[in-house]
Design brief:
Strands 2-1-10-9-13-14-15 form a 7-stranded mixed sheet. The protein has a 4-stranded parallel sheet with strand order 4-3-5-6, sandwiched between helices. It has a two-stranded antiparallel sheet with strand order 7-8. Helices cover 37% and strands 16% of the residues. The protein has 2 domains: 81 residues, Non-ribosomal Peptide Synthetase Peptidyl Carrier Protein, Chain A (Orthogonal Bundle); 250 residues, ANL, N-terminal domain (Rossmann fold), CATH 3.40.50.12780. The chain is built from 14 helices and 15 strands. α1 crosses α2, α4 crosses α5 and α5 packs across α6. The protein is globular, with a radius of gyration of 24 Å. The longest helix has 20 residues. The N terminus and C terminus are likely disordered. By secondary structure, it is α/β, with parallel strands linked by helices. The termini are far apart. α12 links the parallel β9 and β10.
Length: 450
C-alpha cells in the first residue's frame, strides 16, 4: 500500500490556529494563575479572556509580527478572535500568512501653523477662565490644541484656537444652563480624547459647574457594562449631567435609576445647538471648585478630591517654574485626559502658559509609538532603558516637550528637544527632585489655603 500523503491544512485553518495560539500565550503571560481558559473564535476578549485595552494593543503587535501585516486602528475595538481574523484577512488581501504587507513610513500631519508666541502670561489670572479669556483676547487665532487622529491611511489633525475654544465653550455653557444646571453642580465628562472633551470641560466651568472627568469606554461592545461601572463615581459626585458619546446616550438614561441626581445625559453637539439662549453665565471665583478628580479605584472604591481654581493654578505655576516652560514650547501628549498629568500637566498648563498641545489618544500612541517619530534627519535620540526614542523636531515649533510619564516601561520621564542645524541632543527637562519640590510646594499651597 502506498504511503498515505499528508495533506496540509487550508490557509484559513492555519490562520485560525496561529491566532488562537498567540492569544493563549498572551493570556498565559498576563494571567499565569488562570489555567485552562478556553479560547475560540467567538470568545470575547475582555469578558471571557480578561484582555484589557493595553493587552489588546499587545495582541495586535504580536499578530502583525506573526502575520507580517499592518492592522488598522479599528481592530482595537473588535471584540472576538473571529472578527480579528476577518480584519486580518482583509488587511492581508488574501495573501499567505507570511506575505509582508508592511507599508513605508506614515507621513506626519502638516506642521503647526500658529500665531506668534504671546508676550507675557496671564499672571493676574485667578481662575482657569481668566487664563482662557486673556489668551482669547490677546491672540484668538493662536493654536491652543491640536488633536492628532489616525483613523485612516493618512494621519489628520483638528486644531482649536483660543478664540475657537472660548466660543465653543460659551455655546456648551449656554446649553448646560438651558438644561437647568445650577452653579456648583457636578458635570461628568465621559469622552475620549478629542475636541468635544475640551469644549465640554471649559463649557462646564463657564456654566458654573464642577467638572468630573471619568474613564471613557475602550470598546463599543462593552459600553453598557462600562456605564454601570461608573455609576459609583456618578453617585458619589452627585452628578447632575453626563456629557458623553452619542452611542452612550440611550444607555446612559438607564443610569438615572442608579444615580438619582442625574437629570441629563447629553452630547457636546447637543449642548451647542441653539447657542445664545442660555442666559447670563455666572462669574467664577478662585475658591470655586473647578475639578473633582477621582482616584483609579485599583485598591478600593474611587475617591474624589475637590480642586478649586486656585489649587489648579498653584500647581500649574509650580510645575511650569520647575520645568522652565514657556509659550515657545510645544507639548506632545498621549496621556488620558481623565488622568491628572494629562489633564493638568499637559493641557491646563498649556492653557495658562500659551504653548500649543498636540494630543493623541493613549491607544493611538501605544499601538504605534513611531507616530511621533522623526521623518527627516533632524532626529533626537536618547537611550531609555536600552531602547531609543526618536521624536520629530520639525512638527512646527523650535522646542518639543514630550510628556511620557505612565506611557510604559520604556519611557519614564519627560525630555526636551531643541531644534538646531545638527541632530539635537536630549537633555532631561527636570530631575526627579525638581518635580518632587514642585509637587511639594503645590501640596503645601493647597493644604494651607483652606
Amino acid at each position: 500500500m502506498a504511503e498515505e500523503m499528508r495533506v496540509a491544512p487550508p490557509a484559513e485553518a492555519r490562520d485560525e490556529e496561529l491566532l488562537i495560539g498567540i492569544i493563549r500565550r498572551l493570556i498565559a503571560e498576563i494571567h499565569p494563575a488562570a489555567t485552562g481558559i478556553p479560547v475560540c473564535l467567538d470568545s470575547r476578549l475582555a469578558a471571557d479572556l480578561g484582555l484589557d485595552s493595553l493587552a489588546v494593543v499587545e495582541l495586535r503587535s504580536r499578530m502583525e509580527e506573526a502575520f507580517a501585516v499592518v492592522l488598522p486602528d479599528g481592530i482595537l475595538s473588535v471584540e472576538t478572535p473571529g472578527e480579528w481574523l476577518t480584519v486580518l484577512r482583509a488587511a492581508r488581501g488574501g495573501a499567505g500568512p507570511h506575505v509582508s504587507a508592511t507599508p513605508g513610513p506614515v507621513p506626519g500631519p502638516a506642521p503647526v501653523v500658529s500665531a506668534p508666541a504671546p508676550a507675557g502670561l496671564p499672571a493676574g489670572a485667578e481662575t482657569l477662565l481668566d487664563a482662557l479669556a486673556w489668551h482669547a483676547q490677546a491672540h484668538p487665532a493662536r493654536t491652543c490644541i491640536r488633536v492628532l487622529e489616525f483613523a485612516g491611511e493618512e494621519p489628520s489633525a483638528q486644531e482649536i484656537s483660543y478664540g475657537g475654544l472660548s466660543a465653543g465653550a460659551v455655546a456648551v455653557a449656554a446649553g448646560l444652563r438651558r438644561g437647568g444646571l445650577c452653579p456648583g453642580e457636578a458635570v461628568a465628562i465621559m469622552l475620549p480624547t478629542g475636541p468635544e472633551f475640551f469644549l465640554a470641560f471649559m463649557g462646564t466651568l463657564m456654566a458654573g459647574g464642577v467638572t468630573v472627568p471619568i474613564y471613557p469606554p475602550a470598546r463599543p461592545a462593552g459600553l453598557e457594562e462600562h456605564l454601570h461601572r461608573q455609576a459609583g463615581i456618578l453617585r458619589n459626585a452627585l452628578a447632575a449631567v453626563l456629557i458623553t458619546v452619542p452611542e452612550a446616550r440611550l444607555l446612559g438614561r438607564a443610569l438615572r435609576y442608579q444615580v438619582p441626581s442625574l437629570r441629563q445625559v447629553v452630547t457636546t453637539a447637543e449642548l451647542q445647538a441653539g447657542a445664545g439662549r442660555g442666559g447670563v453665565l455666572p462669574a467664577a471665583a478662585a475658591d470655586h471648585t473647578a475639578l473633582l478628580q477621582y482616584t483609579s479605584g485599583s485598591t478600593g472604591d474611587p475617591k474624589g478630591v475637590m480642586l478649586a481654581h486656585r489649587h489648579l493654578l498653584a500647581s500649574i505655576r509650580a510645575m511650569g517654574s520647575a520645568a522652565d516652560v514657556g509659550p515657545a514650547d510645544l507639548f506632545v501628549s498621549w496621556l488620558p485626559l481623565y488622568h491628572d498629568m494629562g489633564l493638568i500637566g499637559a493641557w491646563l498648563a498649556g492653557l495658562y502658559y500659551g504653548f500649543p498641545l498636540a494630543v493623541m489618544s493613549p491607544l493611538a500612541f501605544l499601538s504605534r509609538p513611531a507616530r511621533v517619530a522623526a521623518r527627516d534627519q533632524r532626529t533626537a535620540r536618547h537611550p531609555v532603558r536600552g531602547t531609543e526614542l526618536r521624536v520629530r523636531t520639525s512638527i512646527g515649533s523650535p522646542a518639543v516637550l514630550i510628556v511620557a510619564e505612565c506611557a510604559g516601561p520604556r519611557i519614564s520621564q519627560p525630555f526636551r528637544v531643541t531644534d538646531s542645524d545638527r541632530p539635537p541632543a536630549w537633555r532631561a527637562l527636570t530631575r526627579k527632585r525638581d518635580l518632587s519640590r514642585a509637587r511639594g510646594s503645590t501640596r503645601r499651597s493647597v493644604s494651607g489655603a483652606g
